[in-house]
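Lab notes, practical 5.
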Amino acid sequence: MRCRYAFAAMCIALLVSVTDAQTARPDFTGVWRPYQGGRGGDPALGGVAAAAPVLKPQYAKDYDARRAAETAATQRGEPVATNGTLCVPYGVPTMMRVASYPVEFIQTPKQITIITEAFSEVRRIYMDKPQQKIDDVPPGYYGRSVGRWEGDTLVVDTVGIKEAVQYNRIPHSDQMRVTERIRLAAPNVLHDAITIEDPVVLEKPITYTLAFSRAPDYEMVEFVCDNNREYLDANGVVRMRTRGK
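Output from the prediction step:
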């Protein structure tokens, strides 16, 4: 009889061990660079670009006209201002990848903090907390992010992003919601699958995936936008400061 009990206990322990292994939470702590699928890289591990946005008719006309005007201005050598030009934070979700600058994850049980090298932007993901109603979150560059684990995937829900903070200059309402599913696609490759939903502006969600590779020996560099040589003139045209001006 004792053998039976011992065998049953061993089976239960093994089952618990297997279950724990299957639901183990990865540690994202460290610095991650945008993944390059070129020489030495695996294209299958690269990111997935977003398709062209589909806006509701009342927003699509203005958006298309603005994009055409921006293209014409660039061709004239008068590019429109960007957040980088104005030293304004990119905010969520654009901050998750700015050019080739890395991001750093600091992971604790109650909070995951993400710091970008570009502009030294910081966002905080509060773990296992209920999300507030969108109307109760004061609008900001980063909104309010709460996270939970689904197996080995970190699911992040973000609301309360101010309307001036736009992804690829796409307008949005105060009802926009950003959902991220962050996981290890390979031992040293991190994927951030992003979905942008807005029932007021978008006909369908915008989805894309960012890919990063681990940079174990990299030390983040301070990036403060306090000496930018670009500025806006009285007509809103981007100009470059020259010596003596």
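Observations recorded by the TA: The chain is about 20% helix and 30% strand. The longest helix spans residues 2-22.
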